[in-house]
Every structure is written in C-alpha cells, then in structure tokens.
Design a protein that fits this description.
Strands 2-1-3-10-4 form a five-stranded mixed beta sheet, sandwiched between helices. Strands 7-6-8-5-9 form a five-stranded mixed beta sheet. The N and C termini lie far apart (56 Å). With 248 residues, it is of the alpha/beta class. The chain is built from nine helices and ten strands. The longest helix has 15 residues. 42% of the residues are buried. It folds into two domains: 130 residues, Periplasmic binding protein-like II (D-Maltodextrin-Binding Protein, domain 2); 106 residues, D-Maltodextrin-Binding Protein, domain 2 (3-Layer(aba) Sandwich), CATH 3.40.190.10. α2 links the parallel β1 and β2. The radius of gyration is 20 Å and the shape is globular.
C-alpha cells in the first residue's frame, strides 16, 4: 500500500510541476522576482529558473547550446542576431525601455549634470563593459555625445554586467553609470535623487529597447509561451514601470 501511495505521489508531481529556463539581462535582476511572483499567482505550478548575465555573454551561451527557452535581452541587437541564426521561434519584441542614471554612494553636487565626471575629485567611474553590456554601450555613446569621453576614459572601472557595475559604483568608484531600474530595489532605495543619483539626459544616447524572444529549445512548450505572453502583458508592464522602465 505504501509503495502504491509513493508511486501515485511521484506520478502526480510529475504531471503538475513544470520548469522553464530563462536567460535574463542583468539590469532586469531587480524586477525579475516581482515579475515571477505575479506570474505564479495564476501559474503556481510553473517554476521559473533564471540565469542572469550580460546580454552579450548570454547570447554566446545560447549559440553554444545553453538550455534556455526564453531570452530577455538588454537591447534588440542580440535577439535579432539569434533570430538571424535560426535560434529563435519568435521575432524580437520590445518588452521594456531602459534608461541610464549616474549613481554615487556619497552626496554629490549634481547641479553640473553629466559634467560632474570632469570633477578632479572623481578619480574612478564605473561603467558596464560596452562590448557585452548594452547599458555600457549607451554610457559610452552618452559621454561621446557630451564631448566628455576622451578626457575621462582613464577613470573607467569596468563591470562585466550592469549589476556588477552597480556594485562597483558604491564600492570601487566615486560615480557609476547604471541602469535606472536598479535604484528601485529595496537595497538601493536609500540613495536619493539629486543627492546620490540623477538621470542621464536621454537625448544623449539611443533609446535602450529591451527585446524578448522564445528560443528553439522551447518548441511545443506551452508553459514557456504562457510566461512569454505574461512578460508582454499589462500586469508585467505595471511592474516594469514600478522599476523605472518605460514600456511600449
């Protein structure tokens, strides 16, 4: 009788529980837990496994057969590349639009705006690696358009992802260019606008359209499609807005 009960439990568990595997750009790390929590309200039996990293590195992993089923990139470039390579089941769609902020753990005179980077007391500036992280690329673009890049490049401390860059901004550097979304996490709410951070003028960089695709590993997986639809839904958009994103 006990053996029969164990067997029934195992079979029922396998029928109910399902797992999906998603690759998520580091800037979304601050919002992803709230997104999954909201998703699980209506889909309690679907477990969402998250791998965080820079969009460039996640793309390289996908090209090398990493078992991800959804890719939430920090821009549209990488999903489009994967689509061109035949690794996507869907066309890239924008799920959110990110923006840049300048952060310091210490009180700063932000009346200078982005020009604060020239301050002689600012010896180190954290930025995400522009070769693999779209927010790093946007940072370089903003500084070049502001005619500041060449004079301060020697101050840069590079993070491999935007989350590492946030860490460097409050530990290893006096300033950092970060994803504004990171400022809305519980850990970061102690930093105040105008005192510890300011927005970077969005006119200085190309809008950061963040793209999502379903990958080939998810063929015929209904749970993956449900999560994908959720990320593009009004409920998810409310959460993205709460974390400082603009939404399409």
């Amino acid at each position: 009788m006990k053996k029969l009960l164990v067997l029934v439990f195992l079979v029922s568990s396998s029928l109910v529980a399902s797992t999906i595997n998603i690759a998520v750009a580091a800037n979304v790390s601050y919002a992803i837990n709230d997104l999954i929590k909201e998703f699980n309200k209506e889909n309690p039996d679907t477990k969402v496994l998250v791998t965080l990293g820079s969009s460039g590195k996640l793309t390289a992993q996908i090209k090398n057969a990493a078992p991800y089923q959804i890719f939430m990139s920090a821009n549209m470039k990488y999903p489009k590349t994967l689509e061109s390579d035949g690794l996507s089941l869907t066309k890239p769609l924008v799920y959110a639009q990110g923006s840049l902020a300048i952060l310091s753990s210490k009180k700063q005179d932000f009346s200078k705006g982005i020009e604060i980077v020239k301050d002689k007391n600012i010896e180190k500036i954290a930025i995400a690696n522009p070769k693999t992280a779209p927010y790093g690329k946007a940072t370089v673009e903003a500084l070049k358009n502001a005619k500041l890049y060449d004079s301060i490049e020697k101050k840069f401390v590079y993070g491999e992802s935007i989350s590492q860059t946030v860490s460097f901004s409050i530990t290893a550097a006096q300033l950092g260019f970060i994803a504004k979304s990171s400022l809305y996490s519980d850990k970061m709410k102690k930093y105040k606008e105008g005192v510890n951070w300011i927005d970077v003028d969005p006119k200085l960089y190309t809008p950061i359209n963040q793209g999502i695709i379903i990958l080939k590993n998810a063929k015929d997986n209904k749970e993956v499609k449900v999560f994908y639809d959720f990320i593009l839904s009004p409920k998810a958009k409310k959460i993205f807005k709460r974390f400082g994103y603009l939404v399409p």
